[in-house]
Write a structure and sequence with these properties.
The complex is a heterodimer of chains A (291) and B (277).
Chain A: H1 8-11, H2 15-35, E1 38-39, E2 49-50, H3 54-61, H4 63-93, H5 101-109, H6 116-127, H7 134-141, H8 149-152, H9 154-179, H10 183-191, H11 196-223, H12 228-233, H13 245-255, H14 259-290
Antiparallel strand pairs in A: 1-2
Helix pairs in contact in A: 2-14, 3-14, 4-9, 4-11, 6-9, 9-11, 11-14, 13-14
Chain B: H1 5-36, H2 41-45, H3 58-65, H4 69-100, H5 106-117, H6 121-134, H7 141-165, H8 169-177, H9 182-193, H10 195-211, H11 214-219, H12 227-232, H13 242-271
Helix pairs in contact in B: 1-13, 3-13, 4-7, 4-10, 5-7, 7-10, 8-9, 10-13
Classes of the chains: A mainly alpha (291), B mainly alpha (277).
């Protein structure tokens, strides 16, 4: 297809997009890199000076920093595990047709379209409030003492809220992927006497391998950036129990106005994300050549 | 085989029931939010919860008159809509060039675009904040429009690219034979033929921009603040207005939820960069 027409002007059509993204990526990143070597606090303008790697040293010896890295990993890891396992099970459950299948799928994907601030506040107040939340009522119904979710289990509470937001995404992808699973093959396997678990192990799971990889990578991009849910519920606390890297950078930059330290933290986030990115790019690059 | 049938039917029934139960549990927080939005503040907070009550529209009335809901809604419409228009205007020509006039480097360029999507917001928060401050664009809708368009651009280019790639080249060539130029081919042939795909791309951008929270919380205070920020203002511990929070949330989420339902299938393609269809 490409050899048949090769006119230069048409290729220029891609330039605006390329230039915009290039500027968007390089300018701020270069500035972050520069600021990270500076002592620069917005409260004391005009006093900025080159400090080399001091900001990084400050960050790496700052106890909250390692907590935030750990929190980020726990948050991303748990949400990934919950959404992938839950997503696979639920999508298999709703795969075969039954009355109201369309409505069930609509209900299942709904949380994905709820804005993060709404999701977090509805869960924190209407559901998880230890006095008037619905879960407290359920707990009492069973004679248990209501859990003070955000005070006693802050990180777990955030994980629950974020998992609720992202489970639908996994379900949506897996449901779509399952539809392309060959029905005849499935029937043949059943005829041969393959029982549920064997079908799952040797047919369904291999078929879902790539969608699972895609879900893990795409979710990881967004989960590494979780901010609003923490911002409106715990403010990173109590202490630094729910402070992840994005939230820590935010507090350094916009609450303490320490541009240098915040930039150093931002670069750490970039490195974390890049580790994920390498895998994702490779995966999607493969699917591009496969066609 | 025959004696198996009742058992099979039982399994299917159980499966259907389980599916419905799971779906209702997953959807429940949204339903509860909707229900609470029609309660009085006292009922919303009462324990045990009221499942039967006389619904009131008071919260909605309050929000529209006092909380200045429409101001924030307008900001959301302008920023999400503006970003979608800007993004489409840049993404469609780019996808056209990539799909029909590829070079040796096209694949690398596409993957590089994807990689910009992985740049975490916090990595560039400080410079973007300072640039906006120096350009007097803090709390400005224009800044949000540009940023939303940029963060969604890679997804849009990718999504449109996969749609264009599926269009038989003969259609375009026929138009060319009739003497149509590049722009004519694009507007008279390509865009009409792929309007379904373009619509779902625009929809995805609209949904993601509408729900975007990192930049809208950090770069706006009041005059450009969209609905995500309005909802966030209900987070202060002093103001426990659950019924009003629910009403605001319902209004803020309803349009996007409906759009999402309408386009769920097509979204898969965009959200997975064409890797799952």
């Amino acid at each position: 297809m490409s050899a048949r027409i090769r006119k230069r002007p048409e290729r220029l059509l891609a330039q605006p997009a390329i230039i915009m993204l290039l500027v968007w990526m390089i300018v701020p990143l270069a500035m972050t890199l520069y600021f990270s070597t500076q002592y620069y606090n917005l409260l004391y303008p005009g006093k900025s000076s080159f400090v080399g790697l001091e900001n990084f040293a400050y960050f790496f010896t700052y106890p909250s920093f390692w907590t935030s890295v750990l929190n980020t990993i726990v948050l991303v890891g748990s949400v990934l595990a919950i959404t992938v396992v839950g997503g696979v099970l639920i999508s298999i459950l709703v795969d075969e047709s039954f009355p109201g299948q369309g409505i069930v799928r609509m209900l299942l994907i709904s949380p994905f379209f709820i804005m993060p601030t709404v999701a977090a506040l509805v869960w924190k107040n209407l559901l998880m409030n230890p006095v008037s939340g619905l879960l407290a009522w359920v707990w009492k119904l069973f004679g248990a003492t209501p859990v003070n979710w955000f005070a006693d289990w802050p990180l777990l509470s955030i994980i629950i809220v974020v998992s609720w937001e992202w489970l639908p995404f996994a379900i949506l992808i897996f449901v779509t992927a399952l539809q392309s699973l060959d029905r005849e093959q499935l029937e043949a396997a059943r005829m041969d006497g393959a029982r549920g678990l064997a079908v799952f192990r040797y047919l369904t799971l291999p078929h879902l391998a790539r969608p699972i990889a895609v879900v893990v990578m795409v979710e990881a991009i967004f989960l590494l950036n979780i901010f609003a849910e923490i911002f409106v519920t715990t403010n990173g606390g109590p202490g630094d129990a729910t402070t992840n890297v994005p939230y820590l950078v935010y507090t350094q930059a916009l609450l303490e106005f320490d541009v240098g330290a915040a930039s150093a933290g931002g670069l750490v986030a970039v490195v974390l994300a890049n580790i994920m990115a390498v895998f994702l790019i490779r995966l999607i690059g493969k699917s591009l050549t496969a066609r | 085989m025959a004696h198996n049938r009742p058992k099979r039917r039982l399994v299917r029934t159980l499966r259907a029931i389980a599916s419905w139960l799971v779906a209702l549990v997953v959807f429940f927080p949204i339903l509860w939010m909707l229900v609470t939005s029609f309660k009085s503040e006292l009922e919303a907070f009462s324990m045990p919860p009221h499942f039967v009550f006389s619904p009131t529209l008071e919260n909605y009335r309050e929000i529209l008159s006092r909380a200045n809901y429409l101001h924030y809604a307008w900001n959301s419409i302008v920023t999400a809509g503006g970003a979608t228009l800007l993004g489409m205007a840049v993404a469609v020509p780019a996808a056209y060039a990539f799909a029909y006039h590829p070079t040796k480097r096209t694949k690398d360029v596409l993957l590089w675009m994807l990689s910009t999507k992985m740049l975490p917001g916090v990595g560039v928060l400080v410079p973007i904040y300072l640039i906006c401050r120096d350009l007097d664009m803090l709390d400005s809708r224009l800044a949000l429009v540009i940023i939303f368009a940029l963060i969604n651009l890679p997804i849009m280019v990718w999504m449109i690219y996969t749609y264009f790639r599926d269009i038989p080249y003969d259609i375009l060539e026929a138009a060319r034979m009739d003497g149509a130029g590049t722009w004519q081919t694009m507007f008279r042939v390509l865009i009409p033929v792929s309007r379904g795909g373009l619509a779902s791309t625009a929809l995805l951008c609209l949904i993601l921009s509408w729900n975007e929270a990192f930049w809208s919380l950090n770069l706006t205070t009041s005059s450009a603040a969209p609905l995500t920020a309005l909802v966030a203002s209900f987070s202060s511990p002093e103001g426990l207005f659950w019924a009003k929070l629910s009403a605001v949330s319902t209004l803020a989420c309803a349009p996007i939820l409906v759009l999402g339902w309408l386009s769920q299938r097509q979204l898969v393609r965009g959200l997975t960069f064409g890797a799952v269809k």
